[in-house]
C-alpha cells in the first residue's frame, strides 16, 4: 500500500490544494496517520491508496502535520461510513489527479484524543497518582479484550503525580503516542512530562515554565489541547478570580514550553463565575478553543477562539433558552453531533426532561439550537448514570451512551442523526451493566481500532479482570479477561485512571 498526496485535489471542507508526494505505508505502521489508515481500511491493502489533503479545515489534531483532510480509497473497496468516497480516477504516480468527494472530517472516534501509549491505534489504560509508587502501570490493548500489562519505573515522576497534581494526557511531542503531564502543585516551577516511548516505557522531563506553574496552582482549570495546530498538545489555564488573561504553555516537543499570557477581556472573569469550561474546535480551524456555559442568568455562550499565538478572539452571542438549560443539573457534553468538523454542545440528564438540547456551532460564535424529544432516554440519563459521549456506530457523529445505574442490564445509546434528533437503542449487555454499577471507573475508547467507541471498566475492589463492551454499531460484545495485578492497582488510594470519565 502506498500513500499518495495528489496535486490539485480537493475534498469537501478542504480549502486548498497541495503538491504531490508519495510515501510507503509501513507494514508495521510508524505514524499515527498510517495506523489510523489501517484501522479504516476495508479490503485488500495491496489495492489501497492513501490520500492526504493538507488543509486548515479539520479538528483532527492527531493527524496535524501529515494532513488534515484524509480519505483512504481503493478500487472496489468499501470504506468506513465516515469516510465514504467516490473515486473518479487514480494512479500511484506523483502528480496524479484524483476526483474525491468526502465528508469534512474523519470519524469522531478518529478525532477523539485516543489514550494510546504505543501508537497502534487502539486505546490503552494507565495508572498514576498513588503515594509510594515508582512506576506507571500501563495496560496495552490487544484488540480482543486482553491487555499486555507493563509496570516500568519512572523515577520521581510517580512521586510527583502523588502530590495532588492535575494529571493531563496528550501528545506533547507529536509522535502519535499519549504522554502524561503534571501541573497545579503549589511551590512547583516546572511541568513534568512523561513521554511514552512504547512498550510501557517513558522518558521523563521536568522543564521550567516560570510563572505558569504558580498560576496553575491557584485553582485554575487546566486544559490540554493543541492551541496552535502544530500537532503537539499544549496547556491552558482559566477560571481564577481576578485574572484578565488566559495563560497558554505551548509545547516545543522536548519537555519545554513557550509561555503566553495575553489579555482576553471579560472572558477571564466569566470563566471565574463557576461556569463549565468546554474545550473544542468551534470554528473548524484545527486549533483548540474554549467555550463557557452553565452560569445562572446567562443568555449567551462565550467562546475564546484561539489565534494560534496565545491570543484569542472573544465572542458572546445569544443562545436563547439553551443557556438557562445549561445552568440546571444537566451534564454538558461537547462533540461533533452533525459531522461538520465543528464542536457542538449537548445537554443531558436534567430532571424532568424529555429532550436532549443541542447547540450546533456555526463557526462564528453563534449556535443553532435544537431541543428534540428522545423518549425515555432523557429520564434514564437523570438517574445518575455515567454519560459517555463517543461515536458508537462509526458514522462520524457523536453519540451519547449511559451506564452505571443499579438494576440495569442494558447500555442505552442515543445515536445522533445530525439534525438534533437521535435514534435511541437500549440493548442488553449481560453482566456488564451490573459491573458498571459497582462504582467502577468507566473508560471510553477505541480498544480494537475499528473506529467505534467501546467502554472499559476498572477500579472495583476484588476484581482480577478488565471488562470491555466492544461496540458493534448496533449493540455491544462483552469480554471480561484477566488482567493480573492491574485490576488491583486500579483500586489503590488516590490512583488516577488515565482516560477515565472521572
Rg value: 22 Å
Q: Trace the largest sheet across and list its strands.
A: 2-1-3-4
**General shape:** globular
- What do the pLDDT scores average to? 83
How many β-strand runs?
Answer: 32
> Helix fraction?
under 10%
How would you briefly describe this protein structure?
The chain is mainly beta.
Structure overview:
The protein is mostly beta strands and 502 residues long. Helices cover 10% and strands 37% of the residues. It is built from 9 helices and 32 strands. The strands form 8 sheets. It has a 4-stranded mixed sheet, with no helix packed on it. A 4-stranded antiparallel sheet has the order 7-6-5-32. A 4-stranded antiparallel sheet has the order 8-9-10-11. A hairpin with a 6-residue loop joins strand 29 (454-458) and strand 30. The longest helix is centred in the N-terminal third of the chain and has 9 residues, at 32-40. The radius of gyration is 22 Å and the shape is globular. Residues 1-112 have low confidence and may be disordered.
Amino acid at each position: 500500500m502506498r500513500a499518495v498526496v495528489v496535486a490539485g485535489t480537493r475534498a469537501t471542507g478542504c480549502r486548498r490544494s497541495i503538491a504531490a508526494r508519495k510515501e510507503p505505508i509501513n507494514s508495521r505502521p510508524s505514524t499515527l496517520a498510517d495506523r489510523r489508515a489501517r484501522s479504516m481500511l476495508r479490503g485488500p491493502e495491496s489495492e489501497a491508496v492513501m490520500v492526504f489533503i493538507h488543509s486548515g479545515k479539520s479538528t483532527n489534531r492527531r493527524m496535524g502535520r501529515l494532513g488534515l483532510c484524509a480519505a483512504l480509497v481503493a478500487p472496489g473497496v468499501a470504506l468506513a461510513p465516515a469516510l465514504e468516497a467516490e473515486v473518479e480516477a487514480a494512479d500511484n504516480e506523483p502528480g496524479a489527479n484524483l476526483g474525491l468527494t468526502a465528508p469534512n472530517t474523519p470519524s469522531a472516534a478518529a478525532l477523539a484524543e485516543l489514550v494510546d501509549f504505543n501508537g497502534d491505534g487502539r486505546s490503552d489504560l494507565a495508572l498514576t497518582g498513588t503515594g509510594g509508587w515508582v512506576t506507571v502501570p500501563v495496560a496495552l490493548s490487544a484488540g480482543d479484550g486482553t491487555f499486555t500489562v507493563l509496570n516500568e519505573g519512572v523515577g520521581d515522576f510517580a512521586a510527583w503525580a502523588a502530590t495532588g497534581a492535575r494529571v493531563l494526557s496528550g501528545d506533547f511531542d507529536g509522535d502519535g503516542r499519549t504522554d502524561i503531564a503534571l501541573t497545579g502543585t503549589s511551590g512547583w516551577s516546572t511541568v513534568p512530562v512523561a513521554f511514552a516511548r512504547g512498550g510501557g516505557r517513558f522518558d521523563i522531563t521536568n522543564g521550567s515554565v516560570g510563572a505558569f506553574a504558580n498560576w496553575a496552582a491557584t485553582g485554575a482549570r487546566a486544559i490540554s489541547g493543541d492551541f496552535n495546530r502544530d500537532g503537539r498538545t499544549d496547556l491552558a489555564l482559566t477560571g481564577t478570580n481576578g485574572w484578565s488573561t488566559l495563560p497558554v504553555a505551548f509545547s516545543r516537543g522536548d519537555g519545554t514550553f513557550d509561555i503566553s499570557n495575553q489579555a482576553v477581556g471579560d472572558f477571564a472573569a466569566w470563566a471565574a463565575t463557576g461556569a463549565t469550561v468546554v474545550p473544542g474546535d468551534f470554528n473548524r480551524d484545527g486549533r483548540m478553543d474554549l467555550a463557557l456555559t452553565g452560569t445562572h442568568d446567562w443568555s449567551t455562550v462565550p467562546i475564546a477562539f484561539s489565534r494560534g499565538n496565545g491570543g484569542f478572539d472573544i465572542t458572546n452571542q445569544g443562545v436563547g433558552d439553551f443557556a438557562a438549560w445549561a445552568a440546571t443539573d444537566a451534564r454538558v457534553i461537547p462533540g461533533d453531533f452533525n459531522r461538520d468538523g465543528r464542536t457542538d454542545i449537548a445537554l443531558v440528564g436534567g430532571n424532568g426532561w424529555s429532550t436532549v438540547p443541542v447547540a450546533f456551532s456555526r463557526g462564528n460564535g453563534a449556535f443553532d439550537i435544537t431541543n428534540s424529544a428522545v423518549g425515555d432516554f432523557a429520564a434514564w440519563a437523570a438517574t445518575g448514570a455515567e454519560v459517555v459521549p463517543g461515536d458508537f456506530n462509526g458514522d462520524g457523529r457523536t453519540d451519547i451512551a449511559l451506564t452505571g445505574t443499579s438494576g440495569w442490564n442494558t447500555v442505552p445509546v442515543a445515536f445522533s442523526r445530525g439534525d438534533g434528533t437521535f435514534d435511541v437503542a437500549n440493548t442488553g449487555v449481560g453482566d456488564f451493566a451490573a459491573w458498571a454499577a459497582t462504582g467502577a471507573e468507566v473508560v471510553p475508547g477505541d480498544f480494537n481500532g475499528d473506529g467505534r467507541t467501546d467502554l472499559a471498566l476498572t477500579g472495583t475492589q476484588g476484581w482480577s479482570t478488565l471488562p470491555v463492551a466492544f461496540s458493534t454499531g448496533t449493540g455491544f460484545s462483552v469480554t471480561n479477561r484477566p488482567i493480573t495485578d492491574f485490576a488491583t492497582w486500579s483500586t489503590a488510594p488516590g490512583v488516577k485512571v488515565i482516560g477515565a470519565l472521572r
